[in-house]
Amino acid sequence: MRYSIEGEPMPVVICELEPGEEMITESGGMAWMTPNMQMSQEGGGIGKMFGRMFTGESLFLTHYRCEGGPGTIAFASSFTGAIRPVEIGPGRELIAQKNAFLASTTGVELSITFQKKLGAGFFGGEGFIMQKLAGNGIVFLELDGHVKEYNLAPGQQMIIDTGYLAAMEGTVTMDIQQIKGVKNVLFGGEGLFNTIVTGPGKIWLQTMPIPQVASEIIPYLPTSSK
Q1: pTM, to two decimals
Q2: Where are the domains of the chain?
Q3: What is the distance between the alpha carbons of residues 132 and 170, in angstroms, rounded to a whole number?
Q4: In this predicted model, what pLDDT tens digit does every residue of 112-166 receive, in sequence order?
């Protein structure tokens, strides 16, 4: 499989497949394809289907298999931002926000993971449940806004405002940190908690979380009057 990512800030990943190669995406993730791409729906077992239901995603994953010659399939971003390819392998699992998965090769396994610490789940910006990507292959992440990557050394930390953590390697740990000082809480505009991640491992930060954008737009929306 060969691919190219084009068109930021509304990007698309265009995948060129050989006969027998296959891609996976969420329901409705395909943007365009050649006629020789054959589509099928697969749940991957009751446990995995239940997990996707908890993350708010479709119960089934859509498989596209290339048959009868080379084929093309494209997956487009649903929001202004970036598409990032990540190689998944043994010991290189990925934890991502619930809507980050765009598409992958068939060797990638999509499941859910629970934040081990309730505090991180309730206040860390991503909720108690996140997506886990394991197995072998390439996954394409759909991230919001500009993306900044950091490689954290063992014990190295980064403090992140709610929603700006898009993904992290499985070796990175996540917790929350309460903002200190009454004035900081009341007038700092950052809420009560920040997310704190600790290395070793890579993290992906995004500059335009969709909930943040929504909160900025809401005051300007017209209100209905009776």
Answers
A1: 0.83
A2: 2-215
A3: 8
A4: 887 655 454 444 444 457 899 999 999 999 999 999 999 999 999 999 987 899 9
Q: Which CATH architecture has domain 2-215?
A: 4-Layer Sandwich (3.60)
| Largest interatomic CA distance in the chain | 66
Backbone CA torsion sign across 64, 65, 66, 68:
negative
10 Å CB burial of residue 188 (0-12, 13-18, 19+) is exposed
Helix extents (H) in the chain? 46-54, 118-123, 182-187, 210-217
Cβ neighbourhood burial of 132 (10 Å; 0-12, 13-18, 19+): middle
Instruction: Give the pLDDT band (50/70/90) at residue 1.
Output: very high
- Block residue for tokens 């405002």: 161
Amino acid identity of residue 154, one-letter, is P
Question: Residue 31 pLDDT > 80, yes or no?
Answer: yes
